[in-house]
Structure formats: structure tokens, C-alpha cells
Amino acid sequence: MEIKEEKERLVLLNDANEEAGEMTWSVAGPEIMIIDHTFVDPTYRGQGLAEKLVAAGVEKARKEGKKIIPLCPFAKKEFEEKAEYGDVLRK
After folding, report:
1. How far apart are alpha carbons 89 and 76 in whole angstroms?
2. What is the edge-to-edge ordering of all strands in the sheet holding 19-27?
């Protein structure tokens, strides 16, 4: 599985280069990303792929010096469970 970045979206591609999932965000000013949607095709669920999408979003925020507001319920749960994401969580 490969993660590719598009405009305000990370796309998860399977080996056939078909879309298997996505995470989207909104830009709220120059320093804030709002994760508003995470989805993985039911065929690929249970493999930790949604977690990988959120982790890729966290890495993007770190690289760009941004903070994240996790509005999507899945991303919100990830931020609650992973203390190591605290550095990019907008409090």
C-alpha cells in the first residue's frame, strides 16, 4: 500500500494503484489542519491502514510546523490514544 498526497487529501493506493482509502483535511489558516474524514474500503479494513493515514497526516503537520484539530471521530480517537501525537494537537 502506498500513500500519495493530493490537495488537502492523503490517498491510500493498493498494489493495482486503485484507491483503497483516504484522509482529508481542511486548512484553517496557515498553521492549522482540521482532519475531517478518514475512510478505508471495507476490503482492506483491519490492517491498520486508517492508522497509517492519520500517522502520515501527523508527519505532514510536523514537517510543515502545523497543528491538527482532529474532528473526524477516528482521528480524534487516534489522538486520544497516542500521546506521541500531542506535539501537533491544537489544544
Report:
1. 10
2. 2-6, 9-13, 19-27, 32-40, 67-70
Answer yes or no: is pLDDT of 91 > 90. no
* C-alpha cell recorded at residue 7: 490537495
Three-state secondary-structure class, residue 90: coil
Average pLDDT, integer, range 9-19: 96
End-to-end CA distance of the chain: 32
- The answer to whether 22 touches 53, Cβ cutoff 8 Å, is yes
Tens-digit pLDDT profile for residues 22-42:
999 999 999 999 999 999 999
User: Of the candidates 76, 64, 72, 79, which has an alpha carbon nearest to the alpha carbon of residue 31?
Assistant: 64
Q: Are 19 and 12 in contact (CB under 8 A)?
A: yes
Query: Residue 27 is inside which H or E element, if any?
Result: strand 19-27
